[in-house]
Amino acid sequence: MTQIQHDNHRARRLRDEAGNEPASGRESWGGQPLVVRLWGGISGRPHDLWLAACRLIDLQLAHPGLDAAFIAARLGCSRATLYRAFADRDLAVAGYIREQRLQRVWCLLHSLPASVPIAEVARRCGFLDSTSFSRLFRRRFGVRARDVRAGG
């Protein structure tokens, strides 16, 4: 199934940053898996947009440029429309991304070997600044990442 973006009731195939189209919907662009289904564009329901955005966030969590503009561009909607879809659930796009990243770090700290540095785990989840990551992690979970790694 090829990804389709609806634009003023005309459908067109999505392309990657280099302008390339995938041969099939099962392939990936730049090593990243595709979002299998996009929301229905102008006639799409906000719930469908929210689900597509959540799937895209999950797939692109390690991308340091993941933000509302990135998501809206990939899903073919405006940032305002994306913000409304999240606001309908009392969520903010940036807050949702941050929470998903922190949850992924938490899981990886429990599953990866201790030989993988915490800074590398954080980087794999989209956190480039280890100081702000540490502060966010402690604020969210009430413990330091190294204490979680140590089993505390």
Supply Rg.
17 Å
Provide the β-strand percentage band.
5-15%
Average pLDDT, all residues = 78
pLDDT < 50 stretches:
1-39
- Domain count: 2
Structural class: mainly alpha
Instruction: Enumerate the strands of the largest sheet in spatial order, edge to edge or round the barrel.
Output: 1-2
Total helix count?
7
Oligomerization status of the protein chains:
single chain
Shape: elongated
Number of strands: 4
Series of H and E elements? EEEEHHHHHHH
Largest beta-sheet details: 2 strands, antiparallel
Pfam families: HTH_18
Keywords: DNA-binding, Transcription, Transcription regulation
GO molecular function: DNA-binding transcription factor activity; sequence-specific DNA binding
Region (Disordered): 1-29
Describe the structure.
Keywords: DNA-binding, Transcription, Transcription regulation. This is AraC family transcriptional regulator. With 152 residues, this protein is mainly α. It folds into two domains: 4-91, no CATH class; 95-149. Helix content is 49%, strand content 8%. The protein has seven helices and four strands; from the N terminus they run ββββααααααα. The strands form two sheets. Strands 1-2 form a two-stranded antiparallel sheet. It has a two-stranded antiparallel sheet with strand order 3-4. The radius of gyration is 17 Å and the shape is elongated.
